[in-house]
Amino acid sequence: MHRFFTNEIQGNTAVVRGEDVKHISRVLRLRAGDAVELCDGTGRECDAVIGSIAPDAVTFETQAWRPAKSEPCARVTLFQCLPKAGKMETIIQKCVELGAEAFVPVQSERCVVVLKPPYAGRVERWQRVSEEAAKQSRRGVIPKVEEPVALEKLTFDGFDTILVAYENERTVSLKTALRSAHPSRVAIVIGPEGGFSEAEIKTLTENGAQSVSLGPRILRTETAGMAMLAQILYEVEP
Predict the structure, then answer these.
(1) Is it the case that residue 6 has pLDDT exceeding 90?
(2) Rg of the chain's alpha carbons, rounded to an integer?
(3) Residue 181 pLDDT > 90, yes or no?
(4) CA dist 196 → 148, 168, 175, 212 (Å)
(5) What number of other Cβ atoms are within 10 A of residue 157's Cβ?
(6) Residue 186 near residue 229 (C-beta atoms within 8 A)
(7) Are strands 210-212 and 161-165 parallel, antiparallel or unpaired?
(8) What digits encode the pLDDT tens for the residues 68-118?
(9) Angle, to 10 degrees, between the axis of helix 174-181 and the axis of helix 221-236?
């Protein structure tokens, strides 16, 4: 069944606008009376029937809303140090598919890419990538991409577990950290191509983070977040 996001909901009526109108009418060739699935972007979904199609809007008659089945029980935010070229888009796309809740781009000491404000254009692009990935993977939310922040200014308020992937960690594995924490709201921190400096690891751990090993092989920055996210959700999902 086709699925669309909308936050324009009033009683038993919902409206979809924008590019999805063209997709519904011209690409999918749906008509009044056809059944679809709607999602409000906050973790709720429902079955709906098309009531009418206009050039700028599609109106739906909705049934009872329910929790989206595609959302994981653990809420994971990826703090990703800025990678080279277009890697950030790939990271966002794949981590949305895997179940990430939000993204915070991070400027660290060894980042090759240095972003300077204003960030609006870049963040809007990343947010569109997140939205498209959420639609494709049938997510119940559209994960938010925050503005870039310097590593030394990071705060982790509200997280019960903060994990930083560090290639020089020799004692604590990701599996060990997860099984002792039983996390529900997790921050994972991934370094740039050059990794974290010792001073940055010290800053992060003093801020409540636990450094963990992802195993004996060194992963690329665009791989580490995906691997870490997949392992976390595998471990905590019932």
Answers:
(1) yes
(2) 20
(3) no
(4) 17, 10, 21, 13
(5) 5
(6) no
(7) parallel
(8) 999 999 999 999 999 998 899 999 999 999 999 999 999 999 999 998 888
(9) 40
Phi, psi of 229 (to 5 degrees): -60, -45
Rounded-to-integer distance, Cα 220 and Cα 43, Å: 31
What would the pLDDT profile of 143-172 be if each residue is shown by its tens digit?
999 999 999 999 999 999 999 999 999 999
Residue with tokens 């999918």: 28
Is the CB of residue 95 less than 8 Å from the CB of residue 226?
yes
**Residue 108 vs residues 49, 85, 127, 166: alpha-carbon distances, Å:** 49, 16, 21, 14
Total residues belonging to the chain: 238
46 contact partners, CB below 8 Å, separation of at least 6: 37, 38, 62, 63, 64, 65, 66
Contact residues for 93 (Cβ-Cβ < 8 A; gap 6+) = 129, 130, 132, 133
The CA distance from 209 to 161, in Å, is: 8
How much is the mean pLDDT over the chain?
95
Cα–Cα nearest to 158, from 91, 123, 200, 208: 208
Q: Is 181 exposed, middle or buried (0-12, 13-18, 19+ CB in 10 A)?
A: middle
